[in-house]
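pasting for the record
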Amino acid sequence: MTTNHIAAVKAELSTVTALADQLRAIQAAVAREADLKRKLTQLEAQQADADRAAAGKAAAVARFQNIRVEGTGKGNPRIDDYTIHYTASHWDSMLGEQVRRPGKQSLTGPTPELYAAVLADPSVLPAAILALDADADAAVRRYCRDKARGYVSA
């Protein structure tokens, strides 16, 4: 064996080792690509579901118009009961079309769609309710919780 032969094998080994390292990197990239594609598909499906849910919620909220919340007393949430008055579209099977009908529900137990419609425009809530918390949703929840307890906390 000659020194030239050893040097040639070392050079070839160095080249092959570099290529093997590149191959391992490519194999890892291919595996990572498959994981990322799977994750992207999942995220796109979740986003599509969220978009459909938001569109459905917006459509449900759009059913309600002329929303107002009225209390039974003098604006004191400790004693007042609040009622949501609204106009909503309903399908009339006799007429075969959408018709608007007035309705009302208690503030302590509205449908989720009506509740979302009220929160979409918090200005319809009485000042006494809004004074309970800076966030309209939290204020209404606090009012409902306190009414269920039998008192409104300060």
